[in-house]
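notes to self, project folder thing:

trying the whole complex as one job this time. last attempt i did each chain seperately and stitching them together was a nightmare. three parts in total, labels are on each line so i dont mix them up again. if this works i'll redo the older ones the same way
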Amino acid sequence: MIQTLIDLTRIDGVSGNEEQVRKYIKERVEKYGLEYMTDTIGNLIVKAGGKGGNFKVMLAAHMDEVGLIVNHITDDGKLKFAAVGGFDARILTGQHVRIGDAKIPGVIGYKSIHLQEKKERESAVKLKDLYIDIGAKDREDAEKYIKLGDYAAFSSEPVFFGKDRLKAKALDDRAGCAVLLELVKEKWPFELYACFTVQEEIGLRGATVAAKRVAPDIAVVLEGTTCADVPEVSGHEISTKMGKGPALTFMDRTAIADSTLLRHFESTVKNESIPFQWKQTVSGGNDAGKIQVSGSGVRVLAVSVPCRYIHSPVSVLDINDLENTKELVKKALLTLPLVFDGRQKND
Amino acid sequence: MIELVRELAGTYGPSGREDEIRDVIRKNISGKVDELYTDTLGNLIAVKKGNGKRIMLAAHMDEIGVVATYIEENGFIRFSNIGGVSPVFSLGQRVRFANGVCGCVCYEEKLKELKDLKFPRMFIDIGTNSREETMEYVSPGDIAVFEADTIEQNGKYISKALDDRIGCAVLIDLIRQIKEVKNEVVFVFTVQEEVGLRGAGTAAYALMPDLAIAVDVTNTGDTPRCNPLSIELGKGAAVMIKDGRTISHPLVKNKLIDLAKRFDIQYQLEVIEKGGNDAGSIHTTAGGIPSGAVSIPCRYMHSPCEMVDIGDVKSAVNLLKAFILSEF
Amino acid sequence: MRTDTLLEKLCEIDAIAGFEASASDEIKKYFEQYCDKVWVDTFYNVIAYKKGSSKNGKKIMITAHYDQIGMIVSGYEKNGFLRVSNLGGIDMKALLAREVTVRGKKDIFGVIGAKPPHLFSSDEMKKNVKLTDLFIDTGLPDEELKETVVVGDPVSINSPFVRMINGCVAGRNLDNRCGVAACVLALEKLKNSEHENDVYVIATVQEEAGLIGAISSSHNIEPDIAVVIDVCHGDMPDADKASTFALGKGVPVGVGPAFNRKFTEQLLEIADREGIPTQLCVEAGNPGTEAWAIQVSGMGIAVVEVCIPLRYMHTGAELVNLGDVDIASALVAKFAAGRTVIPSKEDADDSDIN
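result (full assembly):
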């Protein structure tokens, strides 16, 4: 699973441009001999479950990552860009990126600190003042390599460091994809669709349509979530802690976890003695938000791998959290029929 | 009706945890409708069968609340909001968790300015001294609602959670009053309205009504030095023309206005810039469902002392009754 | 009809967001000139349908919203004044000292007033006016006003249609009547041409109030491909070059996550082949148009977008180049009539997995 994750983070797949990630995952599920389809927006939907059971399960992990999109080329050949998805513009200055299908290398520039006036030095840099420099002489030269609408992804090699820590870009949500790629190999006693969704970072777009196609009764979303166990954050502001196991979300700004599902996962961790934690803040959101209100309603739960410095080229996760996330979801799903089979949908 | 309002408003039912309030409503209407069931998200759906148009009336049964997110070592509970909770209104209030444990909402004393009063600087005290002790009663993820009595005074109901238990009361009163209907009337007590109109949309998707009306409360513009708004307490039920989410469909709003005129039911017209109700998500369900709203004017919304006029509530019942009994 | 005459007539129609009912029949007439089957749906979307010649043709939906921004009466003040709220995103900077028409039992003329500048504090003067600072002065006695106007009546902003030099026109409602004009012109071009695809041309409602028309029509029509025609920002001094487009320099075509890549490429190829100049309009996320809603309708719809650059959006002095309307309609007509390549398995697998 770790090797899969490393492979996945090396691929670029900014929201709206998930093709290469999809290609990788498709090849893997083909190897497993599973049926799959790609829909109009680009979700890869894999039929992983068997028959039986009186409910249908959807697992979702998103393939896309935050990044940049080129929206203007200046006369002197610099590339202006907009942010795809939300991140802190202060991280950008001096980052390395690769642009377009040809992965043209570039760096994000801003005038050197020596040339900044006092006021500029003190204030945060704005996205609109930054540009990507690919070394082009002028606009005409730049246009040989780049066209408007080309996506730029962070360039960041995966590195193992410390104790069981992995640094990489796009851990949100290639971590979820890696777990999902393990889970599809299991024999499931009920209908199960693994959805590798697109465009989560720009508004949960892929999950919106995938949920309508699959029309599940139950959905579990696998996510990379914020982890703020770093200095100068007080206890109640820490969303999750690294190395403490998968995080269960009781609610966030887009969804409230189904209480039956939540209780089932909680008792699973206790029975199986898998470490787990609550996501202790309710900010943010993920695909569960759109899946919950899809069609006539879906029971949802999000299980997350804590990631420090999320939405940056140096996101970090603990590989034990990744393993435990897989274990938890696997064990909880396998016992799902005990909770939901025979349960009347209506009272 | 005060007993019903008191029972509804006093029952625990924050967004996402509507089980208790659903049971209370079910108890109040069971045997009086042709079908009664709960859907996946927890909406309670009551059907009066008929052969005419299918009309959906929606009142949300969830209320705003707070959710425990973190327990401090010395037992204090950090929390966040569920729905539009005002830090100012919550200050000094009592909250109650599902298991009956009550807590006081307080703030960090170092906080100097009112504008800095935000939830991360506030906490709930349940009288415990350590994390372990608190965890016996409250865990992260547990949800509490505000506590306050329901009273009737000077022709008004004053209570917490009139948003939207008063709407639920209106629907229950209608169910009790109506025997036979030509139209098929589906009364939906929706969930998770306060966190984004979530229940109404999924219910509408399953029901596919021809017309829909949300029954909810709306702000007024009749208190000292308030923002200009032409809704007043005691001037009748409000027919929504537009809110922050929806421009009412002409079919629904014109019918309501015509009926109010014909049956001499006191009404006013509602145009507000912000906020939305269940009509917002029903309206855009599938290929669009013509929707509107009948609102009950309510002062001090999302506070423990919301206030509505009893006459306005009656007007709302009469107007909705005329609507579901009329031909389309 | 000449483009300027068509556009002028379309701009005269009042179709304030949420109050399109009265205008739908007028829009219908324009479509009926070139198309046999035109109808108005429950939400007052106006739909023109032209059947394709092939059984294997795709279903193409072309939308342009015909609603306009405006205001709505929210209350009375003594001495003939009305309070108003917005319908759609009005530009507060362009609201002071305007003429309006209140659509009550009968049309009433009014001006938008505010207290005189010397009564605003210097702090207030530094800020933009708010809608609550404004009122409509109808000059009517209160009783007559209350008899004629009720809360909820729509208010439109008056502004003349002006022909300018270099093929430019200015006025109100050009957002998005130029899109509607492009639809009419595209229908005219399609009238006598054979095309394989089933084509639905739709003038949609309530774009300015939450994309209601796009949501309802894409669900009802369930097209394979949707083409959205809407305005984008024209080039203005001091404005960000990346999000504004020169007038008369080609059709801006949407690029980004909201738009289907293969069909956008096809659209650009067609433009190239036909000698229609284009520009690329990059949207990193929500483009703020109907495309955003249509893309996630049902199980997902492939969307492309064709824009018309327009300066001073949401004011009474919106300005466009007529040539841009013509080439936008030409491009859309060619795209709709052209053989649309069915996407390969790589892009979208046709078989459903369920």
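what i see at first glance: The longest strand of chain B covers residues 291-299.
need to look closer tmrw
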